[in-house]
Write a structure and sequence with these properties.
491 residues; mainly alpha; Rossmann fold; Glutamyl-tRNA Synthetase, domain 2; 4 domains; elongated; binds glutamic acid
Length: 491
């Protein structure tokens, strides 16, 4: 936007744990913007906080992106002209920038010990002053600083301008003004020689020729630090876009309970990547004022930062479930059967022989498609089709639905008797339906009052795919046997 360089965006996660929904939304927007502009998307691992490093995170980050189909043009595994893409392997670049700033008088070595900083903080708190470095080492002469650096550990702090204001022109937030007197001489290089986030991100966004830095709103307070760093280094900053916060349905900060779990948990829980992308895309962005279903291809084509809003987005799991159901129903038959097979292989109890019986899956497929929102519902729903008896259940499962034991027994006995009178050759949906509906009268009960007992007897659970079709899939003999088993359990 600010210049005519080809668009280059990046996702720059810190490998401090499995990436969550919010992190991946940043990745998605950065990627979609690069794609819509015919630009490039870079993955850079910001692994400079050695204390918070979690070894498996980088794999989880890449796996999350791959699952969603977010491909990177440069970064781990694919390489690129700005290698390496791990900050821990780029330390000389940051050290060079730090030296440049020290020489220019815009940064200084700080030799303050942890104890001194602690005392300073306590004193500030006691005096009700805002916390921040008091600038003691900013006064050191170049000679003294140089001499002490040979013998003492130190960090490098950036000398913030304290007068006036720092102005951020954000693509989402518009103009944001920061008072410099509230700023602090932050640490940019730690005593272990690793940069902090602030120095790392400025050096790398520059060196990697990032044109648009798209990141979560939680980073906006870092913007004045970055802007001043760019000024001091004489570099051109990227155009920033701070993405709106994601709130839970209660309009409070998204928590683990309201959906902020690891992205890959959504895969485990049976969400489709297309649904997840569609869902994430609308957390802070919209195509227009009516479109709610959007494919990945459409997103790549039409995503635009100008339609990202500043107001917080609300994470609504019902919406995700709706979208997932939509994409399930949009699947072709063959793909659907494959999907069921996959989830059955992993989800059915070990007692079901593997590979799981294909014809059974094929028969159940059309019945399942309309009834589930998540793929992890598949195995529990079809488990009853495998094996002679229904999956194990306690008699209470029936009595919770049909509370009187005698009534429940009478339901099951009458059903067994009437269904038993249907010859094998006539065992079809229409006939079974007629028989079961016909039970209302002798039982003196509405269908919905007694049918759960039949569900539990046949399926081991009080709801599932339609009962009449299920009995056809089970066949006459198994269906009747399961009714007798249930009667025995209750009796
Ligand atoms: N490493 C930061 C993070 O973990 C990156 C923030 C940014 O995109 O600048 O979120």
């Amino acid at each position: 936007m600010s210049d005519s360089r080809p668009v280059r965006t990046r996702y720059a996660p810190s490998p401090t744990g499995d990436p969550h929904v919010g992190n991946i939304r940043s990745a998605l927007f950065s990627w979609a913007y690069a794609r819509s502009q015919g630009g490039q998307f870079i993955l850079r691992i910001e692994d400079t906080d050695r204390n918070r490093l979690v070894e498996t995170s980088t794999d989880a980050i890449m796996e999350s992106l791959r699952w969603l189909g977010i491909d990177w043009d440069e970064g781990p595994e694919v390489g690129g002209p700005h290698e390496p893409y791990f900050q821990s392997q780029r330390l000389p670049l940051y050290q060079r920038a730090a030296s440049q700033l020290i020489e220019a008088g815009r940064a200084y070595r700080c030799f303050c010990t942890a104890e001194r900083l602690e005392q300073m903080r306590a004193a500030q708190a006691a005096a009700k002053q805002p916390p921040g470095y008091d600038g003691l080492c900013r006064q050191l002469s170049a000679e003294e600083s140089e001499a002490r650096s040979k013998a003492e550990p130190f960090v490098v702090r950036f000398a913030m301008r304290r007068e006036g204001q720092t102005v951020l022109n954000d693509l989402v937030r518009g103009q944001v003004v920061f008072e410099n007197k509230l700023q602090d001489d932050f640490v940019m290089l730690k005593s272990d020689g690793y940069p902090t986030y602030h120095l790392g991100v400025v050096v790398d966004d520059t060196e990697m020729e990032i044109t648009n830095a798209i990141r979560g709103d939680e980073w906006i307070s870092s913007a004045p630090k970055h802007i001043q760093l760019y000024e001091a280094l004489g570099w051109t900053p990227p155009v920033w876009a701070h993405l709106p916060l994601i709130l839970g349905p209660d309009h409070k900060k998204l928590s683990k309970r309201s959906g902020d779990t690891a992205l890959l948990d959504y895969r485990t829980n049976g969400y489709l990547p297309a649904a997840m992308i569609n869902f994430l895309a609308f957390l802070g962005w919209s195509l227009d004022d009516h479109t709610s279903i959007l494919s990945i291809e459409e997103l790549k084509q039409h995503f635009d930062l100008s339609r990202v809003v500043a107001n917080p987005a609300v994470f609504d799991i019902d919406r995700l479930n709706f979208l997932n159901g939509h994409y399930i129903r949009a699947m072709g038959d063959a793909e659907w059967v494959e999907t069921i097979a996959t989830w059955c292989e992993s989800g059915l109890p070990a007692s079901v022989p593997r590979p799981v019986d294909r014809p059974v899956i094929e028969q159940a497929a059309p019945l399942l498609k309309e009834r589930i929102a998540r793929l992890d519902e598949i195995a529990p729903m079809v488990a009853f089709l495998f094996g002679e008896e229904a999956p194990e259940y306690a008699p209470e499962a029936i009595l919770e639905r049909v509370p009187e034991r005698e009534v429940a027994i009478r339901v099951l006995e009458t059903a067994a008797e009437r269904l038993g009178a249907v010859p094998d050759a006539e065992w079809d949906v229409a006939r079974i339906e007629a028989v079961i509906r016909g039970l209302e009268e002798p039982l003196g009960l509405k269908l919905r009052k007694f049918v759960p007992a039949l569900y539990v007897a046949e399926m081991g659970r009080a709801q599932g795919i339609p009962l009449f079709d299920s009995l056809v899939l089970l066949g006459r003999e198994r269906s009747l046997r399961r009714l007798r088993t249930a009667i025995r359990k209750l009796g």
